[in-house]
Design a protein that fits this description.
The complex is a heterodimer.
Chain A (H helix, E strand, L loop, with lengths): L2 E3 L13 E3 L3 E4 L6 H10 L4 H16 L20 E3 L12 H10 L3 H7 L5 H17 L3 E4 H7 L1 H7 L10 H9 L4 E5 L9 E2 L14 E6 L4 E6 L4 E2 L5 E2 L2 E6 L4 E10 L4 E10 L4 E10 L2 E4 L2 E4 L5 E10 L4 E10 L5 E10 L4 E10 L6 E11 L5 E10 L4 E11 L2 H8 L5 H17 L4 H15 L5
Chain B lengths: L12 E11 L2 E12 L3 E5 L6 H9 L4 E11 L5 E3 L5 H6 L2 E4 L6 E5 H13 L12 H14 L10 E2 L5 H15 L3 E5 L7 H15 L4 E5 L13 E6 L2 E6 L1 H10 L2 H6 L1 H18 L1
Parallel strand pairs in B: 3-10, 3-11, 6-9, 9-10
Antiparallel strand pairs in B: 1-2, 1-4, 4-5, 7-8, 11-12
Helix pairs in contact in B: 5-6
The chains are: A alpha/beta, B alpha/beta.
Chain lengths: 468, 287
Amino acid sequence: MSTEVLDQSVPGEINKYDFHTQSKAVFKARKGIDPEIVRQISDIKSEPDWMLQFRLKSLEIFNSKPTPRWGGNISLDFQDIYYYLKPTNEQGKTWDEVPEEIKKTFDRLGIPEAEKKYLSGVKAQFESEVIYGSLKEDLAKQGVIFTDTDSAVREYPDLVRQYFATIIPPADNKFAALNSAVWSGGSFIYVPKGVKIEFPLQAYFRINAESMGQFERTLIIVDEGAQVHYVEGCTAPMYTTESLHSAVVEIVVKKHARCRYTTIQNWANNIYNLVTKRALAYEGALMEWIDGNLGSRLTMKYPSVYMMEPGARGEILSIAFASHGQHQDAGAKLVHCAPDTSGRIISKSISKNGGRASYRGLVKVERGAKRARSNVVCDALILDAKSRSDTYPYIEVDEQNVQLGHEASVSRISEEQLFYLQSRGLSEAEASTMIVSGFIEPLVKELPMEYAVEMNRLIELQMEGSVG
Amino acid sequence: MVALNKPNSMPETLRITNLHVSVGGKPILKGLNLELRRGEVHALMGPNGSGKSTLGYAIAGHPGYDVTEGKIELIDADGKSHDVLEMDPDQRARHGIFLAFQRPMAVPGVKMADFLRHAATNVRRPNRKEGEELIPMREFRQELRSKMEQLKMDPEFARRYVNEGFSGGEMKRAEILQLAMLQPKFAILDETDSGLDADAVRLASQSIAEIGGANMGILIITHHEQLLEHNLPLKTHVMLAGRIVETGGPELAAELHKKGYERIRQAYPEAAEEEKAMTAKEAAGIA
């Protein structure tokens, strides 16, 4: 096995955090997508028939839907992509074999030791047992299920079947259909009634071969009065050999429960990141999405909260950073389906060096959702004349008695701010970085501490070489 | 008192020679000369529009202030000269130049403490490269806390965003805190008393004296004499129409504070004419 540092850098860009590990696959489906491939995937996973039928039906839907023409420019040859790759089970790679360059990048990002090893492809089962073993035991005692979705289909078929694809049906959009046909991996979480998990559950707690992939499928059920904070992925470079990442994340937050889902993702520049994320919040429940998007060629992602019953609340905080050759079409959706529901969207985008950041958001109030309240704030920071920012706020209201607010601002780093900071000894680059960090600070402070630190370091890396 | 002067050496000096500065193509400073040594306090007075703030910005290196002629130098104790005009604003800060802004900029989302830690590290380690370690957090916090205590500032201040939502008085105190943390060799204080009430001015005056000690060369730009109460100026300079027209001692500051600039205008009719012409042009420009 070997690890290599990729150099697919854009001239003038520092891409030292774009790298990947090559792993030998035990099984690799041939390129392209058709019923045979889908059957193969299902077969390898020894899935029940209902899942196979679901996949096949989804494939039909995928084939019947045109590629979206709104948002970003998608030019993908769907027959030129590998849809399934079963990673090897063999162990053997050690931390010592990880190249210095990558270790250094991890150090600069301040990534915890256990996560470093996981990310660099070192099978960290030993460490994970030591560090997280007791924690897993604790969770299990409380009845919490935290596993990968493949295992969940086998081990908790009734629970999975009850909710799977009920929040995001395959027909929702072309990429949800694609994911439904070829999905693999992702997290399954069930938090029983009244159980409050005090620490953030992180994807890398459950370390196994199929934990991460191009088409992962996550399903989270937070039962009545329960509480969970899930942190997906991490800020370290995400590299897949394929150019398409298309995940589906479904969440149900029951009566008076709370769920927070945090994602900070940093994709390599060749990736299309087309993800569907949706949560249903029931009576008095709170759903929060914190979504940070860096890198990728095109990201289209609009985490949404459907407030189904009175008193439900939805909050979406979104950060997007677009640099050279990147288009972030990110945003949020709030759908008020019941009275006395309230929502909030805060979006911050930064574009530099020719990058394009768009906010696309929807606030929808259904008939009968009396006294619904929603507030949208989107701020864009454009770092140079080559870069671009757009705002597409959609509002659909079918109810009289509602309260909606929308504020948008676009700003540039002012010469006066730069001079002020420089006059205190900060270089122009440091001053710009500081202003950008300040710009996203209202969102970064919502992140768990180590992620906030990582986020700031990532911004520093993104800003390097951007001045002078 | 620290004995700064070794035998046969001069105190370090900020020397400004025949300085001409234009803003947006309009000449503001027209041949200004000033020499400030470490350990000296000078007052700089003059009517509005005479170019006091322009001098401050030019020394600090604001990109919008074009130096069209003249020199700004830092002279070492051994007589070696450094060309300040060649330096970027941050290099000037690292060489020990500090400007307390009349209207400091807000930097939303950036905490005072984080900003100051960066600034203090860079100024104390002028050769630090980007990304290198900052002053250790513990050490820095202790120092910041004690400086804030000394200035009678609420510790909460360190956690607020730089100048965001600060009252006029808070901004000025934040500038003094920065002065205390950065310990420059030369400080230009641009109306650090404006927006402060009488008690606050007295506190500011005391604080500046304590911070400056015998080590700092301080140029105090002010319309009043209260800020000078604890910072008795060795020299008081009066500006009119972009030049220093008269230099005296502390008594000159007292006189101008009490009686205004009429005597100066009468004594320097040519400069007074120029002042009139500049004001008229400006009015025409606005109209």
